[in-house]
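User: Here's a protein and a ligand (6-phosphogluconic acid). What would the complex look like?
Assistant: Let me lay out the input and then the predicted complex.
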Amino acid sequence: MGSTVEIFPDEARLAEAAADRFVTLAGTAIAARGRADVALAGGSTPRAMNALLAAPPRRAAVDWERVRFFFGDERTVPPGDPESNYAMNRETLFDPLGIPAGRVFRMRGEADPPVAAAEYARLLATELGPRPRFDVLFLGMGPDGHTASLFPGTLQSVDDAQLVVANRVEKFSTWRITLTPHVINDARHVVITCGGAGKADALHAVLDGPRDLDTYPVQLVAPVDGELHWLIDAAAAAKLATRR
Ligand code: 6PG
């Protein structure tokens, strides 16, 4: 199916657009299947999106009891660590909305990374079936072209037969836990938010340049039977080809 690219004047408008997309796509999933399975990201735009979702008027626009939360990736830190994607989302979304722990499925960043990845793969298979399909998967893009925790130069070692893997990121001397490419591309909707001037060069290469997955892993995002929504701010879009 298709992809769309939308450009907003600044980071605040980008966050509003992301929050509005959450409301719309969660609502569509609930209307169609009775619940919305949403995978969240870390980062700055998701934080701002969450604050908008937890406040009026959007707070009342989602049937939160029918939303389940998953994660696209996680850092290998305990759940209370400021670096944890779970911690950020708990602070800005789950706690303000009173989402019970039973509807939040986190990756165990505190565990041995391959063990945590295998555990999360089993969890996804149990909760979502052998071919997990997220209704909405939120992703970001780093200035280096990474998405989820699929970093440049690491794709060769990612076993895409798995649902979730531990991925070694040498430039940070760390492990990350991440969904694999095929799980990302099985989502019904993938929303990539991308803001800030620091991403302009990479975004130009990603959207206007040749396919080079090893350098720009975010180029792998192409839902097989779903939609890709790029939500971008003007600073990140500054170097895009004018035809947009
Ligand atoms: C993470 C993310 C990662 C993020 C990008 C963009 O945990 O680091 O999931 O893939 O989405 O790095 O982050 P920003 O929106 O903060 O630039």
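Summary: The first strand starts at residue 3 and ends at 8.
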